[in-house]
Amino acid sequence: VKKRLLFFGVILSLALFFNISSVFAEEILNFHSDITIQKNSVLLIQETIIYDFGNLQKHGIYRDIPLGNSDIKVQKVLDEYDAPYEYSISRQGGYLKIKIGDANFTISGIHTYNIFYSVSGGLKFFKDHDELYWNVTGNDWQVSIENSSAKITLPQSLVEKDLQFACFTGVYGSKISECNWQTDSQGNIVFESTRNFSAKEGLTLVLGWPKGIVKQSFFAPLIIWLQKFWPVFIPILVFIFLFRRWWKDGKDYPLKGPVIALYEPPANLKPAQ
To answer: Do 100 and 47 meet the contact criterion of CB atoms below 8 Å apart?
Structure first.
């Protein structure tokens, strides 16, 4: 009898544990990204993240986007009713970190986050084709992702034979392709994962197209570099400024004739002087 009671007690405890865990577990129900590639090679991106906090009381979410060699500008963050969220932006360790939520207010249950931003320098240009290599979800989520997908719109519609496709799923650096792609009736390219993701897993896509569809900006890489590394010019500018001041006022000019020492103070000199 004692063994039976112990057995049923263990089963009941496990059932309660997994039931409570499922109630309080948070997860991303759906992660979808709409990516519009403009003629000038700038990406316009809208991410729609449907996040379930369960019964947990949280202030919001963090969205960490790898910067790489690109420049990202966040335009707005809205809910499913187009009402704006409070958010702040910082750059930490090669990531653009978007903190979304009100520090004075907690939420629970299901919430939708629509993040709008633009990306300069997000494309790769080769001799025979141009390419978008994009980590759709990121690999830094601490929660699972049930569904993930992306839709890409090019400046002009292309037939499928002119496009190059690839996608990868799993942890960072994974070459597993548990995903598929297709073109829709409007000529957009849709990528979708075929399984859900655990924490630290995500979806990455690759799309290539012929040259001439988008224009590579000559100055864009230089502008992005200057935006990232402008502090290196501070000591150079300070040196130039000080050198000019020294050249104008700091040099000792040669004296004409002998220097005669004066052993008496000048006339009309006040005691304090």
So the answer is: no
* Residue 56 pLDDT exceeds 50: yes
**pLDDT of amino acid 20:** 45
Q: What secondary structure, in 3-state letters, does 117-139 show?
A: EEEECCEEECCCEEEEEEECCCC
Q: Which residues contact 183 (CB under 8 A, 6 or more apart)?
A: 160, 163, 189, 190
Sign of CA dihedral 105, 107, 111, 115: positive
Contact call for residues 122 and 45 (beta carbons, < 8 A)? no
What is the chain's mean pLDDT, rounded?
Answer: 86
Contacts 24+ apart (CB under 8 A), 258-262: none
Instruction: State the Cα–Cα distance between residues 175 and 208, nearest whole angstrom.
Output: 18
Are the beta carbons of 147 and 136 closer than 8 angstroms? no
Q: Return the ∠ at Cα 136 (arms to 197 and 147), rounded to 5°.
A: 35
How many Cα atoms are found within 13 Å in the side-chain-facing hemisphere of 59?
Answer: 10
Considering just the CA atoms, what is the radius of gyration of the chain in Å? 31
The Cα 180–Cα 205 span in angstroms is: 10
The phi, psi pair for 253, rounded to 5°, reads: -80, 150
Q: What is the pLDDT of residue 225?
A: 55
d(CA 70, CA 59) in angstroms, rounded, equals 29
Distance of CA 140 to the CA centre of its chain: 11
* Residues facing 232 on adjacent strands: none
User: What is the per-residue pLDDT across 151-189, written as a single tens digit (0 to 9) for each?
Assistant: 999 999 898 899 999 999 999 999 999 999 999 888 899
Could you report the per-residue pLDDT of 192-233, keeping only the tens digit for each? 999 999 999 999 999 999 999 998 866 555 555 555 566 777
